[in-house]
């Protein structure tokens, strides 16, 4: 009877998120003795445990249905988080004429998995409740960069991506903050998408892409359970095979939290591409 009362009180406390004083009250009143034996107890202790369980259940019953469903795991995302993510997406679409098209990144990742049999780390392993809970990707039209500052064998990139993400609470390093290693992997993944699109612009769909260098600067901690916008672009392409990218992760207030640069290398280029000159990639004069 004692153990049943203790388990009942603890289970209800855990179910309804009472891990603070209320949850500790169960342990302090009915905990197993440090020596391994059960401390003396009376009927009043069992009654107290049952009363605590009943009180916690009643408290949960008084919560809004949304909170009850979230606590019991029947909802995939809190309503307020979904509202924030969707509202941000709507604002971007309404105020960003540079957005050219939406990229169905999850569908494309799934097709890649079907063809290759490999599971993608970012868009599959880390996609789901508590991790990357929502994502939308748009291809943008980057502003035409000036030729000044580019070498004779360099051309400006033509690819820019914006990626809106909602990150959960299972990607943490320090408590309450997203792990820096995840952010590095995220940039590496998104830069890979940029390099892949740049590869298509080069007419080299069969060429393979490999990361040669990745540098990440962490300006501020990135809180968990929030939405963020990543902007990344191809800065330049050198000798038709070196793709330089840059990007930043921004909060909803526009603060730059993390930024990164990378170098991707294309291998297995066709002979036609190797013979192509820089002038072949430059836009025709107006």
What does this structure look like?
With 286 residues, this protein is of the alpha+beta class. It is built from ten helices and eight strands. The protein has helices at 2-15, 21-30, 43-61, 65-71, 79-95, 105-116, 121-125, 180-201, 271-275, 278-281, and strands at 99-103, 132-140, 154-156, 160-167, 208-218, 226-238, 242-250, 256-267. Strands 1, 2, 3, 4, 5, 6, 7 and 8 form an eight-stranded antiparallel β-sheet that branches. The chain is globular and about 45 Å long. The chain starts with a helix and ends in a 5-residue tail after the last helix. Residues 1-77 have low confidence and may be disordered.
Please state roughly what percent of the residues sit in beta strands, choosing from under 5%, 5-15%, 15-25%, 25-35%, 35-45% or over 45%. 15-25%
Distance between the termini: 87 Å
**Rounded radius of gyration (Å):** 26 Å
Helix content: 40-55%
Average pLDDT taken over every residue: 75
Structural class: alpha+beta
Order of helices and strands: HHHHHEHHEEEHEEEEHH
Q: TL;DR of this structure?
A:
The protein has about 290 residues and is α+β, with helices and mostly antiparallel strands. It has helices at about 1-15, 20-30, 45-60, 65-70, 80-95, 105-115, 120-125, 180-200, 270-275, 280; strands at about 100-105, 130-140, 155, 160-165, 210-220, 225-240, 240-250, 255-265.
């Amino acid at each position: 009877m004692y153990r049943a009362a203790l388990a009942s009180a603890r289970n209800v406390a855990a179910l309804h998120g009472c891990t603070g004083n209320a949850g500790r009250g169960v342990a302090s009143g009915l905990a197993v003795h440090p020596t391994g034996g059960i401390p003396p107890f009376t009927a009043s202790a069992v009654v107290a445990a049952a009363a605590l369980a009943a009180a916690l259940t009643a408290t949960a019953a008084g919560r809004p249905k949304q909170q009850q469903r979230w606590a019991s795991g029947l909802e995939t995302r809190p309503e307020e988080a979904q509202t924030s993510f969707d509202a941000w997406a709507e604002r971007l679409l309404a105020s960003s004429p540079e957005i050219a098209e939406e990229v169905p990144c999850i569908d494309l990742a799934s097709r890649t998995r079907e063809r290759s049999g490999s599971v993608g780390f970012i868009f599959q392993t880390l996609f789901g409740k508590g991790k990357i809970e929502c994502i939308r990707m748009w291809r943008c039209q980057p502003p035409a960069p000036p030729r000044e500052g580019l070498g004779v064998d360099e051309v400006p990139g033509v690819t820019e991506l914006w990626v809106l993400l909602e990150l959960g609470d299972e990607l943490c390093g320090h408590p309450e903050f997203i792990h820096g290693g995840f952010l590095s992997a995220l940039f590496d993944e998104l830069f890979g998408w940029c390099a892949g699109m740049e590869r298509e612009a080069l007419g080299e769909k069969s060429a393979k892409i490999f990361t040669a260098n990745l540098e990440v600067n962490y300006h501020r901690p990135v809180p968990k359970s929030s939405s963020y916008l990543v902007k990344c672009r191809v800065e330049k392409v050198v000798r038709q095979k070196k793709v330089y990218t840059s990007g930043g992760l921004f909060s909803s207030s526009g603060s730059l939290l993390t930024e990164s640069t990378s170098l991707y290398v294309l291998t297995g280029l066709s002979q036609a591409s190797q013979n192509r000159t820089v002038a072949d990639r430059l836009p025709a004069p107006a």
